[in-house]
Amino acid sequence: MMISDSLNSEFHKAKKVFDAAERIVIISHRNPDGDAVGTNLALRHGLEALGKTVVSACVDSVPANSVYLKKADSFVLDFNYEDFDAVVSVDCGSLKLVQFHESKPEILSGEKPFVNFDHHESNDNFGTVNPVDPDACATACVLYRFFKFLDWKINIDTATALLHGVYFDTGGMMHSNATADVFRLVGDLMMKGANVQKISKELFHTTPVNKLRLWGRIMERAYVNDDGVTVSAVNRADYEATGATPNDTGGVIDYLNAVPGSKYCVLLSEDDNERVKGSLRTQRDDVNLSEVAGQWGGGGHPKASGFGVKGKLEPVMSWKVMQEEDGDEHGVDLKF
Asked: Do 57 and 23 touch, CB atoms closer than 8 A?
């Protein structure tokens, strides 16, 4: 895999940060997915091998499909900024996904280095160092090249975490971002001990009953609107009735994206923080979902994007987001 001059420069800067720092916190985005967790842990393994003290952090818990990864059980939900020499974010396509900057605005002060590893087109380089490659299939792919660039050893735990991230963001190597280079990357990680069958089982073929019940509700509500968009929604009442959690919606979007003739699909979901998340997917080349999500402060990739707003869902003739601003609620016409 070729490394651009700009990415090469950012890798050099990141190396200097890690050489100088002894205590590092790595942040995954809220509602973490397989790439966010896998990349976090892979970088942690690499830094700990250098004798660094590393903490993995996220405002939300690790999803069930990622808990098998080594040290996945050691994520913290909060941390003291003063305890660390450097901050790293992984797979955060926008600053708001970091979340911690709201309670710790000093993260953005520039007082300490902030390394921003990512692969989303929507990333606006909010770190002091920004190894960002929008052409990469996953942030795990960016980090794999960083390991190769530094000649860091990739042991079985690191290989598993990296492949977990790549496998998640390529949909088990079924999405269009699974290029020949990505297959070669997968082969290399397998040679280093990563078990692709186990990763595939954990990510895509292990489904608790409460998750199935939640998916049933989502699929029952699915419809195609007048614009050819497949839409469904899930609210907090659904989580309570099924015993599922917001993390259990992961994966169902791929089934909504399989509706023949659909322009793209949208899943609207309430989370535990009085927010509504919109997940968008498409199989078409003439649709740029990053632009669609950008209308609501989100972003991502042309074929996979998302957004989030504060508010709740209310069913009318179709689903409508009730956005809250300064205590006032108002309906937001998302045309779903």
From this structure: no
Q: What is the pTM for the complete model shown? A: 0.86
Spans of all domains in the chain: 5-203, 210-332
* Distance separating alpha carbons of residues 282 and 265, to the nearest angstrom: 6
DSSP SS3 for 25: strand
Q: Of the candidates 38, 281, 274, which has an alpha carbon nearest to the alpha carbon of residue 166?
A: 38
Whether 273 has a pLDDT exceeding 80, the answer reads no
The tens digit of pLDDT for each residue in 233-270 reads 999 999 999 999 888 898 899 999 999 999 999 999 99
Q: Which residue has the tokens 């990510």?
A: 203
Tens of pLDDT, residue by residue over 89-103, are 999 988 888 888 888
As assigned by CATH, the class of the 210-332 domain is: alpha beta
Question: What is the per-residue pLDDT for 250?
Answer: 85
CA distances for 253 relative to 265, 267, 285, 310, angstroms: 8, 7, 18, 21
Q: Is the pLDDT of residue 178 over 80?
A: yes
Grouping H, G, I as helix, E, B as strand and the rest as coil, residue 36 is helix
Alpha helices in the chain (DSSP H): 5-20, 34-48, 95-98, 100-103, 139-150, 156-169, 180-191, 196-204, 209-221, 236-242, 252-256, 289-294
User: What count of other Cβ atoms lies within 10 Å of the Cβ of residue 8?
Assistant: 13
Six-digit token pair at 191?
């040679």
Supply the pLDDT for residue 322: 72
Question: What CATH architecture does domain 5-203 belong to?
Answer: Alpha-Beta Complex (3.90)
Given a contact cutoff of 8 angstroms between Cβ atoms, the answer to whether 135 and 3 are in contact is no
How many CB atoms are located within 10 Å of the residue 23 CB?
12
